[in-house]
Design a protein that fits this description.
alpha/beta; seven-stranded parallel β-sheet; about 350 residues; 11 helices; three-stranded antiparallel β-sheet
Length: about 350
């Protein structure tokens, strides 16, 4: 199959590219190589892979890049939470308008298969468990509560702290920052396109992706990259809140394998898939694992917070396992050790 891979020069994109090539697909990469992501580092695709250096908002470039393609994997996006409201226009332009341009071009070209990189952030705080009221959507965390060290989101009905629960794909969408809002918009645009054209969409809701090639010391760096960078400087990783934030850390090779599998097998209708390891860990767990792997100083819990961060978000990935036959292969401890060694 001939696949157009947007964002193929990025962290996840390069792993998806390798997986596509390993499975015998032809690939054309479209990437803007924007300097705030790539820091002007040169990148060349593997032999036999064409690179189109263009922005996904460039309709003419997309029309050309889609020629001869049968499917699209759309990874190109501005990531990170967004610092303040001044970031909103860039997220809306890069992610929302960019996806709309891509979908319009796919309709013109008659390309009907889309695998979309979405995110677990579309769920906001996800689902919590109240002893009195059962499964509920957590209330937003107030800044005054965070400043007082009250990190657990409250029950919207009684105000009691909530227990954690896995989130499945039927949970309400509740984006709480600029990036999350743009990901929800991408999913809605893709659904609109599919209904109109008869195309198929696999929306891959990635959880916390880590692994070799992660960007470091940039606004796009994940928490694992930030911790690793600190440890390599001989500094203790600084863990926000109390370190008890639960996440699902999933290795980038597992993400790439699932993404390519969805591209190959999902060819009818619109379907969202949570993509996580299935084993929740805390941010503190990750900091300690990396510190141990690098023989570095013990992590420091700072109590600091970022308004807009969610406390807990962990996925039920059984739909992906059951419907597409995918399973993660990378063990957490092994993955952390590999990440610690990378670039050492």
């Amino acid at each position: 199959m001939r696949v157009l891979l947007t964002g193929g020069a990025g962290f996840i994109g390069q792993h998806v590219l390798r997986e596509l090539l390993a499975r015998g697909h032809g690939v054309r990469v479209l990437d803007s190589l924007r300097p705030d992501v790539h820091h002007a580092k040169p990148w060349a695709p593997p032999d036999g892979t064409e690179l189109v250096t263009a922005d996904v908002r460039d309709a003419r470039a997309i029309d050309s890049a889609l020629a001869g393609c049968e499917a699209v994997i759309h990874l190109a996006a501005k990531v990170g939470l967004g610092v303040d409201v001044s970031d909103l226009p860039d997220y809306a332009s890069s992610n929302d308008a960019g996806t709309a341009e891509l979908l319009a071009a796919m309709a013109r070209a008659g390309v009907g298969r889309l695998t979309l990189a979405s995110s677990m952030v579309v769920y906001g705080e996800g689902v919590g468990h109240c002893r009195m009221h059962g499964a509920v959507t957590p209330s937003p965390r107030a800044e005054a509560a965070l400043a007082a060290g009250q990190f657990e989101p409250p029950c919207p009905q009684c105000g009691a702290p909530l227990g954690t629960a896995l989130v499945n794909e039927s949970a309400p969408l509740d984006p709480r920052n600029a990036y999350a809002s743009s990901k929800v918009a991408q999913e809605y645009y893709a659904s609109n396109w599919a209904r109109t054209t008869g195309g198929s969409v696999a929306a891959m809701r990635y959880h916390n992706v880590y692994g070799p090639g992660m960007p470091r010391d940039t606004p796009y760096a994940g928490v694992a990259a930030i911790f690793t960078s600190a440890l390599r400087r001989g500094e203790a990783p600084k863990v926000f809140e109390d370190g008890g934030q639960r996440r699902d850390f999933v290795h980038v090779r597992d993400v790439a394998a699932a993404t390519v599998l969805a591209c190959e097998t999902h060819c009818a209708g619109v379907r969202a898939f949570n993509l996580g390891s299935g084993t929740p860990r805390t941010v503190g767990d990750m900091a300690r694992a990396l510190a141990m792997a690098l023989s570095g100083p013990t992590p420091v819990v700072t109590g600091h917070y970022r308004l807009g961060d969610v406390r807990h978000i962990t996925a039920d990935s059984s739909r992906l396992r059951n419907e597409l036959g995918w399973a993660p292969r990378c063990d957490f401890a092994d993955g952390m050790a590999e990440l610690a060694r990378a670039g050492a």
